[in-house]
């Protein structure tokens, strides 16, 4: 147990989880992400991604991809996936690297 982290999470009577969310007008709270999972790339905040170090921007998003059975990296490669990101996302959110995996990672580890 991390006593210091636990102590830091409590301020007055409030418990700060590190979750980022939205409170809707009807009182419903929607949790969107964890603040520690947000990366900052060139001054822009990017949520729900795995970050990799970048010499100019600090961090940039990285994609982990598991291809559907029967599709291999020869038919769709890193360049194709990055081009798709650049076409469909804001430029700063586009993945700069694609890692092909048999099974996707299940934890929030920076590579």
UniProtKB/TrEMBL annotation:
<dbReference type="InterPro" id="IPR025110">
    <property type="entry name" value="AMP-bd_C"/>
</dbReference>
<protein>
    <recommendedName>
        <fullName>AMP-binding enzyme C-terminal domain-containing protein</fullName>
    </recommendedName>
</protein>
<dbReference type="Pfam" id="PF13193">
    <property type="entry name" value="AMP-binding_C"/>
</dbReference>
<dbReference type="InterPro" id="IPR045851">
    <property type="entry name" value="AMP-bd_C_sf"/>
</dbReference>
<comment type="similarity">
    <text>Belongs to the ATP-dependent AMP-binding enzyme family.</text>
</comment>
<feature type="domain" description="AMP-binding enzyme C-terminal">
    <location>
        <begin position="49"/>
        <end position="109"/>
    </location>
</feature>
<dbReference type="GO" id="GO:0016874">
    <property type="term" value="F:ligase activity"/>
</dbReference>
<keyword id="KW-0436">Ligase</keyword>
């Amino acid at each position: 147990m991390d006593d210091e982290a636990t102590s830091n999470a409590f301020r007055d009577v409030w418990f700060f989880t590190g979750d980022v969310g939205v409170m809707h007008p009807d009182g419903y709270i929607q949790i969107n992400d964890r603040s520690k999972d947000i990366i900052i790339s060139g001054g822009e905040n990017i949520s729900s991604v795995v970050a990799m170090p970048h010499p100019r921007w600090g961090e940039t998003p990285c994609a982990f991809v598991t291809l559907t059975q029967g599709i291999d990296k020869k038919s769709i490669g890193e360049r194709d996936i990055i081009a798709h990101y650049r076409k469909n996302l804001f430029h700063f959110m586009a993945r700069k690297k694609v890692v092909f995996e048999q099974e996707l990672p299940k934890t929030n580890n920076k590579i």
